[in-house]
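Q: What does the predicted 3D structure of Peptidase M60 domain-containing protein look like?
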Amino acid sequence: YYVEGDAGVTLPTYRKGGDKAAFDADWAARNTSYGYVDDDKIDFLEPNVDRERIANLGKNPGQWSFKNLDDMIGYYEDVINHYDKWVGLNDDINSVHYNVGQKYFTIADAHGPGLAYYSTNNMGSNNPSMSGYLERGWLALHEVGHGYDGAMTYDPKMNLIEIEN
């Protein structure tokens, strides 16, 4: 990519299977406002307020904690794969149920709606932190589930904005 006037800042980026220690060190050294966690199915634009929490994943494990970023990415991949299967999506390009693929973009938005939200552009937490997405639990299951609830049909006769759980 090219940034006009070289004014851009490259974010510390972690990809599944990458060097977590190098990611943590890069983010700590440059102290950027965000770090980026990238996967085929979901991305996280992590605010600096969560940098220490991410650096310490797995150090004081709780029941819902992730061991590391690969564990977190794997959890979200598993959730998305299960949802795809449960709604009948497949890999046959000629099928009406063909999974064209999607990618969730997850952010912290201190001025977002509700506790957390799903929109046409992203899903996020209404908080300066993404702490709710950094552990297994209801928040992740619910917001990812909105990608399957049919709201994109915009049918005024059938309100499909909220998923049934």
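A (community wiki): The structure tokens above were generated from the sequence. The domain at 4-153 is CATH 3.40.390.80 (Collagenase (Catalytic Domain)). The beta strands are 13-15, 34-38, 42-47, 104-108, 116-118, 123-125.
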